[in-house]
């Protein structure tokens, strides 16, 4: 098996939770897309990143079943691991920075694959949801504190690839921030934390804590 790291991205304040991310630091060892897809399927993480140029931040992102031009939590994790000012993805150049305990990226909503943002009346309703059948990608959310920008969310990819629920989803958080036009403090899944902030010119910053698991 090719060497890879496992990060947890968007961890909670105590360092727990977060979404596991596989990162192959030397993408040259698996140059073919088909082989990368097969490895991503075998690893079984929500997403796996192949680093094609660590100095320039060139990365390639896969779910267990498809290649993604852009994805939020893989970019946040890669930005932390590579410590570069930008990442180069097929969708475009992603700004990157580290600020204390948080790793941040800056990206655009139009880079995000389709998501259904479904608002509920209360956080308790979101927490009580059952996993929906495969179909559309659903980001279920509700205000915990609208004045304070605090949101409760859960992400259901609906792909039928064994990932029934995403513990933390930066791309969907980016879409929600773009739609609402305000900074958000999102608790997703079992306890992951995602911070966001709209920026001038249609950009959105997404940030969170990253830890090296193994």
Automatic annotation (TrEMBL):
Gene3D superfamilies from the UniProt entry: Diaminopimelate Epimerase, Chain A, domain 1
Classification via InterPro entries: Phenazine_PhzF-like (IPR003719)
Stored Pfam families: PhzC-PhzF
Domain of life: Bacteria
Entry's Gene Ontology molecular function annotations: catalytic activity
Descriptive protein name: Phenazine biosynthesis protein PhzC/PhzF
Species for this entry: Streptomyces curacoi
């Amino acid at each position: 098996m090719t060497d890879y790291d496992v990060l947890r991205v968007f961890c909670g304040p105590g360092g727990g939770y977060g979404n596991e991310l596989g990162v192959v630091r030397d993408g040259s060892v698996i140059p073919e897309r088909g082989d990368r897809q097969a490895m991503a399927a075998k690893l079984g993480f929500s997403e796996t990143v192949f680093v094609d140029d660590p100095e320039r931040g060139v990365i390639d992102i896969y779910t267990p079943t498809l290649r993604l031009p852009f994805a939020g939590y893989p970019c946040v994790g890669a930005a932390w691991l590579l410590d570069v000012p930008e990442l180069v993805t097929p969708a475009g150049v992603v700004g990157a920075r580290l600020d204390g305990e948080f790793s941040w990226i800056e990206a655009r909503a139009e880079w995000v694959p389709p998501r259904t943002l479904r608002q509920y009346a209360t956080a308790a309703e979101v927490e009580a949801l059952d996993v929906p059948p495969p179909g559309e990608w659903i980001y279920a959310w509700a205000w915990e504190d609208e004045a304070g920008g605090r949101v409760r969310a859960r992400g259901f990819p609906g792909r039928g690839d064994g990932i029934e629920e995403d513990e933390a989803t930066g791309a969907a958080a980016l879409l929600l921030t773009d739609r609402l036009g305000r900074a958000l403090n999102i608790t997703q899944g079992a306890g992951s934390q995602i911070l966001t902030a709209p920026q001038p010119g249609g950009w959105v910053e997404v940030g969170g804590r990253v830890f090296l698991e193994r």
